[in-house]
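User: Structure with iron/sulfur cluster, tokens only please.
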Amino acid sequence: MSSGWIIASVIIAVIVVPLVAGLLSGIDRKLTAHMQGRIGPPIIQPFYDIIKLLGKKPMVAGQAQLVFAWAFVGLTVTAVVLLALRQDLVLTLLVFFFGSVCLPLGALSVKSPYSQYGGHRELLQLLALEPILLLSAIPVSLKVGSFLIADIFAHGQPLLPSLWITFAVLLIPVALVMRKSPFDIAGSEHAHQELVRGVLTEYSGPYLALVEVGHWYAKIFVLSILGLFWVVGSLWWLSVIIALGGWFIVLIVDNVTSRLTWSWMVKFAWGCGITLITLNSVLIHLGWM
Amino acid sequence: MAEVLIRLLILLPIVTGSICLVVRKSEVRAGIVYLTAIFLIVSSIVLAQQWSLPLKYYAGPTSKWIVLVLSMVMLAYIVFVAAVDIRRRGVTLHSVLTIVVALAAAIPVAVFQFALAPEVPLVANPALYVDHFSLLRGILISVTCPLICVYAIRYMKNHEEHLTHLGELKRTRQPRFFFYMLVLIGAMNGVAFSDNLLWLAFFWGLTTLCAYALIRHDETPEAIAGAFRTLWICLIGNVGFSAAIILSWYSPLNTISLGALVSNGAVGYPVLLLPFALLCVAGITKAGQIPFHGWGIKAALVSPAPVHAILYPFMTTGVFIVLYVSPGFVGTQFATFLAIFGAASSLSLGLIAISQRGSISILVCSAISNLALIIVCAGIGTPLALTAGVMLVIFLTISMILLYLCAGVIEQHVRSNDVEDMEGLARKQPLLTGITMTAILSLLVAPFGILLSKWAAIQAAAVIGIWSSLVLALLMLSIGAATVFWAKWLGRILCQTPTSESARLEPFVPHYHGVLLTLVGFAVLSSVFIAPLYNAAIVPIIVGAGYDPILAFTTEAWFLRATGGVFAGWPIFIVVAIVLLIPFATMKVRPEATRPAFMCGENVEIGSDEFVAVGDERTPLMTGGFYIEGLLGEQRLDRFVIPAGVVLLGILFAMVAL
Amino acid sequence: MDILTRSRTKSPWLLHYSCGSCNGCDIEILAALTPLYDVERFGIVNMGNPKHADVLLVTGPANWRNYRVLRNIYDQMPEPKLVVVVGVCGSTGGVFDKCPNTLGGIDTVIPVDVYIPGCAARPEAIIDGVVLALGKLEAYGT
Amino acid sequence: MARTAIPFGPQHPVFPEPVHLKLELEDETVVGVTPVIGYMHRGIEKAAELKTFRQNVFLIERICGICSFMHSLAYCQGVEALTDVEAPPRARFLRVFWSELSRSHSHLLTLGLLADAMGFESLFMQCWRAREIVLDISEMTAGHRIIQSTCSVGGVRRDINSEMAKEVDARLRALQEMLDRSISPVFLHDYTINRRTEGKGIVPKEQAELLGAVGPTARGSGVTVDIRQTGYAAYSDLSIDPVVETAGDSYARTKVRVRELSRSVELVREVLAMMPAGEILVAVSNYPEGETVSRVEQPRGEEIMYLKGNSTNYLERVRVRTPTFANIPALLGMLPGCELADVPIITLSIDPCIGCTER
Amino acid sequence: MAWMLPTIIKNLFSRPATRRYPYKDIREPFLGYRGRIHLDPQKCDLSRDCARVCPSGAIEVSPEDRQWTYHPFRCVYCGACMQICPQRAITQDKFYAKPATTKEIETINVPL
Ligand code: SF4
Ligand code: SF4
Ligand code: SF4
Ligand code: SF4
Ligand code: SF4
Ligand code: SF4
Ligand code: SF4
Ligand code: SF4
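Assistant:
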């Protein structure tokens, strides 16, 4: 990659991603509303929300939570940048993962009942999410022969046909990151929940906006991982379609299920997710896929 | 010069330790400890400049008999101790097993050496053999362990004051304590440098004995039970050594030199696989891997913090041997299953740690779980894996010791090692909290070296064929579990009630904060300078093992590049620095912007963690952590983990037989 | 209208607290969220957490126990914030006129920006009331 | 395990009304619950002694806006007993009409809130969308969406003409179809709802009887109790089979509501068809005298109203025993041992109403 | 499994049920909706029956000042005053008072 490309990728990752993500959550809300027989907010609603939050008077419950909010955003952005620079997949995922840990840490740093519970549940959520996300790199690397994302691009063939099992399992972390049913146990998109938005309880105003924006990066990050399953040459829109397809399935599932409990989530993620990805790798090893 | 220093690294601590035993004045003892510490640290720095390796030290013929006799005396002493215990406290499982295992270790060697093959030459094989790997190991021990001793000077003083206050202590036990601490350092250096299996076995046993004595330091019934458990489990290693000595002598190689065994390898000489397996079992017991993890967790409950801290390098000694001999069996089925075993062990302990409440128990579980990663690396055996293993040895030693020491200080401060009681430490001891946080983060997040090593391990594990999927699945789950328990602990110490007052730094205690900050410095610097460190310290090890270091990493402008990908550690450091600096620099929290936590509207006032409940009374808010004992409790998991460990070990030996 | 004010009026997040109401107005507030009225069209979302809310919707008269809660959650809302009282019993006490444990309207405890009459207030009226309250935001900070 | 003691309420998004449960937890498991009340107490019973017995109708129906009509019905029936008047037959049928209308909107509301507490937003929306049909009917016939204000001492204040009856019937048919197609099956069969409710918050039959549970809470545990069987208003002319489930868990209670809901809609249509012609209100000329107990079956169970008159315009005592009050002991028995995530669901499964419990 | 699926798919492809208040499909309250009350001062004879019957004290009548006062923010729109008024001086329309930032009170002078 030339340095021009690098700079361009970084700029896209840092600036364009939140714009796209904001629009995407606007569409998400609109679609969800329509599925529920409502009209829903305007598509640019998320931007109104963020700007409004930024304009609110700061109000905090402790300094540590702010530091972790920044760390969350910083590391998540780093992960997105690494992805844009087509760096090592495992490393990128690890960075993303440790960014995600900052969110519960921020929540746990305030002695607040709901924040604490949200933090603990978020940790359990990461316990379910992280192994799947990391492990999904394995069948990919088996197929393309390296962990470098650049090599996925160089591979020249779509991964989905041989890795559809992994792709399907990856929808679990996507739903988890998007905080959708049945996995929205720690901090739901919607407030009507026993934890009063859990990990986000103690953030307000500009800091809530900060965390929200970080969350946008995170969403785009996982969706881009889905997109990696169909990169062929210059047909970049195919990966976009694949990613959006996964996103839409998650939306549908959100609307046809209720929230389940953490124990179900961990058992499901570990039991089904890990087993299936491992199975996928074994099948590739055996040359059957 | 170097030879002398190496010998001093082993002998000097033993000598000064013995002096401590007789010195009754604590100031003098402290002086001796300082001097020893300074000597060890300085000589390791000097040795670090020494690149004309390997160094060999051939002992004279009589030394063989000295070592033999010492070994026998040591094992006899162990039998004696166990016998005394049986007389005093009745027959217990652990003391009986101690006697059985000690005899099983002693008798074969005695028969072999005195009766069957007294001609086994010691002169032909070097007694000590210092290559880059063992030097690195020796330096790590000689730099970190003296710091533990310095820390212990203050710690044990407080500890004994507390015990005296409780009326549980009549006479100071510190002379004995420092004796064993220092001897343990010498013995660990001995393990690092020995090449002759007889010597190795002797030092190996000596470390076990010291560990045993240190664990029972407080002389409570639980401590004694825990100590004996440690003793017999770790002595299994010596049984393995005894068997390995005999087997390798009767192998075609006709040697008892570790170096010779490793350089010839099991591929050429399949009979060597059994001695290797036995050495690995020795390492596994000592590193407290499944199914032997019980000793570590039990010991964690009963002994003072510096003991835990020094038990960490002690356990590392176990995986060091496994990693050291791993080039000898690379590529065999045995190696693959060793990797699976390590991954399973890592996951098991990671899960057990989630349900632990004691800070030391968490640390022990995490230590074992991390050491298991090194075993995985040994099993994988590629250059990259070897690199990952060595890096893990380095970074983990620093971070884990740091954490143990932090836990000790916290424990003395809050008078409990229950993580739940550490709530709000961030307000009371901001500096200590900062150090602990750095230590925990150094285990978890990029850009610290441990993450790099784990990344390298993952890269390496991906290429071992069909079993790699299993190994990796277990590894990923274990990484996930680790994050949960660390974050939980971190959350607890950071947890504080919102208040508009700002926290004040606690007074600086050199023995504590000084030592801790030194270790933090090591952790950070070693991670920042990872590329030079790799070039200087690790590349020679890879070369020494007969590999091409290109296959592990190449360095370019502070990046490490593996065949699988690039580790861009340096940019991440910058990001982290920025991320941490922005809020600190820009966000001065104004007191009036502080609001109490959300408590459904029933808060009492800012700065108070109470809410109004029944009958308008103030009710304290309690926010305990998650321990998921129903799902992940130690007892519950042990029902699966111990059988699984036994079965996996069985499979390992089955692989040897194949 | 600058972008910030515009965003403020486009994204009012609600916090609903019921004092001593009869539930009549509370369920009408909820009804306003549901498909037939769908206040999310205006960016209105029910947040349930004072720290995230812009508009406090209160129903029912304050009483000797809940006025403290009311004050606490009002305190925990970041500025700029609005208080909208829904229903006549929250405005003045309404039908709970002679009830001995009430303190009267919400304005005896916290400042109120808009009163929505009705017993129970209709969802349409709730929409109108919130819109009226948002008008106040234009003056904020200028 | 670490102990946790946290406030759950009074201001909490899953409770539309303020109630405070002091929860003690270990991990996610609830080990202790202490209810803390008083956030809604207004002193309505006392106020009812300070207002005239006719004014009281409007106060009593605002004990709670959800089954507003049932409160006024119980009150009016009581006062009628004390003043020796009898509501005319058409009025009694109209009373059943609005009662069952209230029941169906209340059940839809509860089911919706339950779905919402489980994070099943689309189902919540669907329930409340269906509920709007009921509210429109209420607005059309009574002049208000939820506070009907139609019951009066001596009869009812509004009549339904035949055109209106036809319109109502058409709307009810639409409602019925919506229920059968998109609401009942989800509650009855959906896997995730099943997982969240089945086996959660169990009250065995004996315990339900012992603790005096009422309404769907009792019927979900297999207790056959339905005050409508006593035949007040026009219920004696209708066939009332209590809907009973035996499992005693949240799922059973939900099922009871789903089935009762359909039955309510049917009842409304039956009543419309059977309605006799005639007077709707008789004049009451004397003051209430003596004491009486009036009982009605609210959506949440049996309400008991005790009234005492002293031949003045003012009553001497009004005492209301509301269904939620009777169900709280059962609730406190359900919660310990459940998970924090189940607290809202179990709590909502008894359909708690603080408004009338605290009055 | 997914029993909700048909419904949401159907919703997704059909027109939302939303009434676009306040822009479109404004639905007036049904006939007979109990809204705010109006006094015809010509008819009123200040008998105070309405004030006496009002459950929420929303009407005050002062025969001395010949004033009839109505508190829209107290009124629960029950219609009892309209029913009782012997002069049929009170009527009820089907709209509530508008939301307001202050609680105005309506005072009407009743001419002799
Ligand atoms: S304060 Fe006293 S009377 Fe009131 S609920 Fe509590 S115990 Fe009962
Ligand atoms: S205004 Fe009327 S309907 Fe609304 S809460 Fe008050 S009493 Fe109930
Ligand atoms: S019951 Fe209520 S109104 Fe009556 S005295 Fe007690 S608190 Fe006051
Ligand atoms: S039971 Fe509930 S809904 Fe019914 S009147 Fe009482 S509070 Fe209202
Ligand atoms: S209900 Fe019975 S036991 Fe309870 S306070 Fe009243 S008289 Fe006493
Ligand atoms: S239970 Fe009855 S007596 Fe007790 S506080 Fe409530 S209303 Fe009063
Ligand atoms: S409005 Fe009617 S009831 Fe009221 S004072 Fe006038 S005449 Fe009398
Ligand atoms: S409608 Fe009812 S509340 Fe309003 S003034 Fe008339 S009597 Fe009073």
